[in-house]
Structure to design on (904 residues):
C-alpha cells in the first residue's frame, strides 16, 4: 500500500505546488542575531513540524564548477559532527522524521518533517542542526556520491524529456549561470573536489544567505528558540551577490538534436522575468489562459483536445531571482511534430496579438480566486509559500492581497503585458527526435 | 525507478515532486473516528471523513474496473474510457466538465490502475454540489462520440509513447510483469499494448461503460470540511436517482503455479542497466494467514524504509554495489502479488554483482532475526506517517477509495498501524523463508544498447554558438 500510494502521488502530481493561499494565514517574521530571516506560521491542529532552510546556493553559484552546488548539498548528511551517514540516517528515521535536500538553479533547500512530541522532536532537530551546521565532507563518501551522480547523469541521457530540457536551458541562457543543469555534466562533476565543496559550503551556507521557514504545532516562543538553535551554528557571512541579468542569448534560433525516440519533443521559449516583476500578475493570469491551466487552456485545447496531437501541451513562466524562462512545450510522434509546432506557434502569436477574451479572463479569475483555499490547505504547501516569500523577498501581505490583485486585472493590462514582454519571433525552439521536422 | 501500475489523464503527470519520499506516502493510515458510511438504495456506497482543518473538500468517485478486468485484445480499455469520461454527456458537451470545475476554482483529474478507475475534484467546500452534479451525470449519461474517440485514442497512444516506449526503464518494467504473470490479468500494462490501442473500437468502449459504470459498482468518497449528514443528503439528491445495473462477476483468473525461475532480457537504447526482481507472494485477499502480508510489509520496510534501511545502508553505502535499490510490496490488492526488489548497479559494477548482493541480503533475512532497532524504527515511522497523512485530505480520500474498491474496507486503514506494530521479528523471518524462493522469482534486466548517432549530436541546423 505504501508503495502504491506513493506511486499514485507522483503520477497524479498532487505534490506539485499550485499557487496561493487562503486569507488570514498569519505569517510571523523576524531576523536571528546572526542575520537569518525567519518565517513562521503556527499550525496547532496536527502534532507535527515542517522546517525548510533555503540558501541562495543553487547551481547558479557553481561558477566554473558545474554540479558543485548539488554535490555540496548531497554531502550534508554523508557525515557530520562525528557521525557517519549511517548514523545520521538512523537518528532521523528512528523517530519517524524525514530529512530532505534538493538543489535548483536559484536555491538549495534542506528540510525536516518531524513529530512535535518533545523527545522525538529534539532528536530530529538536533540531528538536523548537526547536518546543516557541521557537515564533514568525508573524502570516501564524496567519491561514492560522485559516482552516484555520474550514473544519474548517464540516466538523464536516455530520457528524451531530460535531453530536451538540458538543450533548452543551454540554448536560451548562453553564458548565464542558469544555462547549466543543476546536476552538472560528466566532465565537470568528475573534476569536483572536497576542497571546493567545503569552500562552497563556507561561503553560501551562512546566516545572511538563509531563509528559515517553519510551520507546525509550536508557539512563537518555541519557534524563536528553534530558529536560534538551528542558525547559531552558521557563520554570519554575507548574502550571495545579485545574479547577472539574463539576456535572450539566442533569440529566434532553432536547435535540432538527434535522438532515438519514437516521439519528437519540442520546447520553445526565452528568459522573461524576475519573481518580483511588476507584470507578475498580468503575465501569470494571461498564461493561465494560454497554457497554464491544464486541459482548459488554449495550448491544450488546440493541440490535444481539438486535434489529438499530444498528451501534454502547455506553457508556463518560471520566474526566478534572475530572469526565469517562459517555456511552452509538447511531445508527439515525429511524423506530426511539424504540424503540432505550427499549431503551437499560431496559438502563441494569436494570443499575443489578440489577447484573451473578456470571458476567458473572467473564467481565469474565478478559477484562481475560487480555488484559493486549496492552496494553503496543508502545512506542506504553506511552508513552501512562506519559504518563497522569504527567498524572493515578496511583500508580507503577498498572500492576503493575491486574490484582490488577480481580480483587479483588466483585459487591457493582460494584453499590454504580453505584447510588451512576449515576442514569439525571439523565442528559441529546441527539437529533439529522430527525424526531420 | 517507477513501475507503472497507474496511469492518468491529466497533463501534470510528469511533474510529480514526491520522488522516493515516504514523506509523501506514509507507511500507515490514520486512526480517526469521524468516518461515516452509507449505501444508497441504488447500491452506491458513500464514505465521508470529516476534516475541518481547512475550508476545502475532495470528492472522488471510484469504479470497480481497471486493467485487471480486461483480457487480451482489449487491453487499455479502462484507461481509454477514463479519458472519454471528459468527452461529454447529453447535458454537457465535450470538455465542459473540466471547464465547469475550473471556473469553480477546482482541481480535477482521474487515474486508472489495475483494479480501479477513479475521478476526483478538489474544491472550496461550498462547491461540493458542482462535483456531485457532474459526476452523477457522467456515471450514467456519457455520450461516446466517434469523432472524439478518434482524436482521444491518438492522445492515449502519445501518452504511451511518452511514458513507456521512449523510456527504457518503463519498457523493462512492462516486460517484467508480462513475464512474471502468465494467466493473471496483472500481466498486461494499465495503458494497454500499442496494438490493442490501434485496434480499439468505439463499440468496445460503449460496452465497457455500460457494463461497469453504475452506482452499485462505485464508491463515492468525500473528505474535508463538511458535515457527513449533509453530504449524505447531497449524495442522495444527485446520485440517488441513478439506475443500478447487473454487474458481472469477474472471473478469478488465478495465476498458475510458478515452476521455476523466469528471466527476461530487454535490449533498448539506454545508458544505464536496470535489474527488477519479483517473488510471488500472497496479498491480504489470497493469504492463508492474516499476519503474513503485514509481516511482508515490515520485511519491505526493513530493506527499504528509508536511508538507514538495509538496502541503502549495505548496498549503496556499505558495499557500494548499487547506485539505488528499492524494495516494495503491497498487501492490499485483490490478487496474488509480487515482493519486488529493483535497482541500478554502481559505476563499474555489473547486474550480476548487484543481483548476488541482493540475494545475500535476502538470505540474511531468512537466517537471522531482524534486530530490535529495526523493528522499533519501523514502528516509529508508522506512528509518524499516521500523523503526516492527515496533512492532506486528498491522501486520506485516496486510502479510503483504494481499500473500498479493492474489496477491503476503510476500517482496515485504521487498523494498519496496529497490525504493523504487532509484527514480530520471528514472523518477518518466517515470511522471508516461505516466500523469497528462487523458484518463485522473476528477473528482468535492461541491457542498454548503444544510442545510435550519439544522443546529443546535432543533425541539421545545429547552433554553433550553443554549448
Amino acid at each position: 500500500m505504501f508503495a502504491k500510494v506513493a506511486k499514485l502521488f507522483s503520477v497524479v502530481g498532487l505534490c506539485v505546488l499550485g499557487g496561493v493561499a487562503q486569507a488570514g494565514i498569519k505569517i510571523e517574521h523576524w531576523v536571528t542575531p546572526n542575520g537569518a530571516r525567519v518565517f513562521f506560521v503556527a499550525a496547532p491542529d496536527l502534532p507535527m513540524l515542517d522546517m525548510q532552510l533555503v540558501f541562495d546556493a543553487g547551481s547558479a553559484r557553481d561558477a566554473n564548477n558545474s554540479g558543485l552546488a548539488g554535490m555540496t548539498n548531497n554531502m550534508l548528511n554523508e557525515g557530520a559532527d562525528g557521525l557517519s551517514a549511517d548514523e545520521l540516517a538512523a537518528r532521523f528515521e528512528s523517530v519517524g522524521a524525514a530529512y530532505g535536500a534538493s538543489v535548483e538553479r536559484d536555491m538549495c533547500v534542506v528540510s525536516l518533517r518531524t513529530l512535535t512530541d518533545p523527545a522525538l522532536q529534539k532528536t530530529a532537530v538536533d540531528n538536523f542542526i548537526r547536518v546543516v551546521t557541521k557537515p564533514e565532507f568525508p573524502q570516501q563518501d564524496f567519491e561514492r556520491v560522485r559516482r552516484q551522480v555520474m550514473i544519474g547523469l548517464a540516466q538523464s541521457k536516455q530520457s528524451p524529456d531530460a535531453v530536451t530540457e538540458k538543450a533548452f536551458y543551454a540554448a536560451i541562457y548562453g553564458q548565464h549561470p542558469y544555462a547549466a543543469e543543476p546536476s552538472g555534466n560528466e566532465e565537470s562533476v568528475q573534476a569536483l573536489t572536497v576542497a571546493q565543496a567545503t569552500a562552497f559550503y563556507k561561503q553560501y551556507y551562512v546566516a545572511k544567505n538563509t531563509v528559515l521557514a517553519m510551520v507546525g504545532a509550536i508557539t512563537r516562543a518555541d519557534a524563536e528558540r528553534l530558529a536560534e538553535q538551528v542558525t547559531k551554528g552558521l557563520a554570519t557571512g554575507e548574502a550571495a551577490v545579485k545574479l547577472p541579468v539574463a539576456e535572450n542569448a539566442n533569440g529566434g534560433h532553432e536547435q535540432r538534436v538527434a535522438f532515438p525516440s519514437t516521439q519528437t519533443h519540442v520546447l520553445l521559449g526565452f528568459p522573461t522575468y524576475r519573481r518580483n516583476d511588476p507584470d507578475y500578475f498580468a503575465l501569470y493570469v494571461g498564461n493561465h489562459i494560454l497554457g497554464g491551466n491544464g486541459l482548459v487552456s488554449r495550448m491544450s485545447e488546440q493541440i490535444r483536445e481539438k486535434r489529438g496531437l499530444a498528451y501534454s501541451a502547455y506553457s508556463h513562466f518560471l520566474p526566478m531571482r534572475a530572469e526565469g524562462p517562459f517555456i511552452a512545450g509538447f511531445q508527439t510522434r515525429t511524423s506530426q511534430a511539424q504540424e503540432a509546432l505550427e499549431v503551437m506557434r499560431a496559438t502563441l502569436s494569436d494570443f499575443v496579438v489578440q489577447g484573451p477574451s473578456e470571458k476567458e479572463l473572467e473564467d481565469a479569475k474565478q478559477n484562481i480566486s475560487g480555488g484559493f483555499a486549496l492552496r494553503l490547505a496543508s502545512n506542506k504547501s504553506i511552508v513552501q509559500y512562506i519559504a518563497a516569500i522569504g527567498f524572493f523577498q515578496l511583500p508580507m501581505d503577498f498572500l492576503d492581497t493575491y486574490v484582490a490583485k488577480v481580480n483587479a486585472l483588466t483585459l487591457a493590462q493582460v494584453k499590454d503585458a504580453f505584447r510588451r514582454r512576449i515576442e514569439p519571433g525571439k523565442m528559441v525552439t529546441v527539437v529533439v527526435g529522430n527525424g526531420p521536422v | 525507478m517507477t513501475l507503472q501500475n497507474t496511469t492518468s489523464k491529466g497533463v501534470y503527470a510528469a511533474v510529480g515532486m514526491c520522488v522516493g519520499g515516504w514523506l509523501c506516502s506514509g507507511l500507515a493510515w490514520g486512526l480517526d473516528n469521524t468516518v461515516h458510511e452509507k449505501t444508497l438504495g441504488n447500491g452506491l456506497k458513500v464514505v465521508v471523513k470529516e476534516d475541518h482543518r481547512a475550508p476545502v473538500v475532495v470528492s472522488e468517485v471510484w469504479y470497480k474496473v481497471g486493467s485487471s478486468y480486461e483480457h487480451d485484445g482489449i487491453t487499455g480499455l479502462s484507461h481509454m474510457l477514463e479519458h472519454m469520461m471528459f468527452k461529454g454527456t447529453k447535458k454537457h458537451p465535450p470538455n465542459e466538465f473540466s471547464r465547469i470545475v475550473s471556473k469553480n476554482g477546482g482541481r480535477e483529474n482521474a487515474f486508472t490502475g489495475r483494479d480501479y478507475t477513479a475521478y476526483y475534484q478538489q474544491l472550496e467546500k461550498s462547491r461540493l454540489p458542482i462535483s456531485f452534479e457532474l459526476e452523477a451525470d457522467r456515471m450514467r449519461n456519457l455520450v461516446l462520440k466517434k469523432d472524439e474517440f478518434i482524436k482521444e485514442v491518438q492522445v492515449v497512444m502519445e501518452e504511451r509513447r511518452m511514458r513507456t516506449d521512449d523510456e527504457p526503464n518503463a519498457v523493462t518494467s512492462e516486460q517484467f510483469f508480462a513475464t512474471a504473470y502468465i494467466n493473471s490479468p496483472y500481466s498486461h500494462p494499465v495503458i494497454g499494448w500499442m496494438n490493442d490501442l490501434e485496434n480499439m473500437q468505439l463499440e468496445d468502449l460503449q460496452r465497457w461503460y455500460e457494463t461497469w459504470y453504475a452506482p452499485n459498482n462505485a464508491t463515492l468518497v468525500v473528505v474535508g470540511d463538511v458535515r457527513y449528514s449533509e453530504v449524505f443528503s447531497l449524495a442522495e439528491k444527485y446520485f440517488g436517482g441513478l439506475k443500478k445495473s447487473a454487474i458481472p462477476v469477474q472471473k478469478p483468473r488465478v495465476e498458475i503455479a510458478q515452476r521455476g525461475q523466469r528471466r527476461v532480457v530487454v535490449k533498448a537504447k539506454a545508458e544505464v542497466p536496470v535489474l527488477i526482481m519479483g517473488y510471488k507472494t500472497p496479498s491480504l485477499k489470497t493469504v492463508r494467514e492474516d499476519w503474513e502480508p503485514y509481516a511482508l510489509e515490515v520485511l519491505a520496510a526493513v530493506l527499504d524504509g528509508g536511508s538507514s534501511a538495509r538496502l541503502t545502508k549495505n548496498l549503496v553505502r556499505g558495499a557500494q554495489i548499487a547506485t539505488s535499490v528499492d524494495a516494495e510490496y503491497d498487501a492490499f490488492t485483490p490478487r496474488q502479488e509480487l515482493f519486488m526488489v529493483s535497482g541500478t548497479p554502481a559505476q563499474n559494477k555489473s547486474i550480476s554483482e548487484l543481483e548476488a548482493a541482493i540475494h545475500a541480503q535476502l538470505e540474511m533475512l531468512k537466517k537471522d532475526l531482524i534486530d530490535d532497532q529495526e523493528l522499533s524504527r519501523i514502528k516509529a515511522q508508522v506512528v509518524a506517517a499516521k500523523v503526516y497523512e492527515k496533512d492532506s485530505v486528498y491522501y486520506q480520500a485516496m486510502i479510503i477509495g483504494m481499500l473500498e474498491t479493492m474489496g477491503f474496507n476503510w476500517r482496515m486503514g485504521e487498523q494498519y498501524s496496529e497490525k504493523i506494530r504487532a509484527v514480530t521479528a520471528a514472523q518477518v523471518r518466517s515470511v522471508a523463508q516461505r516466500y523469497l524462493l528462487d523458484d518463485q522469482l522473476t528477473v528482468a534486466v535492461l541491457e542498454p544498447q548503444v544510442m545510435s548517432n550519439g544522443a546529443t549530436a546535432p543533425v541539421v541546423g545545429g547552433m554553433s554558438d550553443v554549448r
Chain B is about 40% helix and 20% strand. Chain B touches chain A through 129 residues (CB under 8 Å). The first strand of chain B starts at residue 7 and ends at 8.
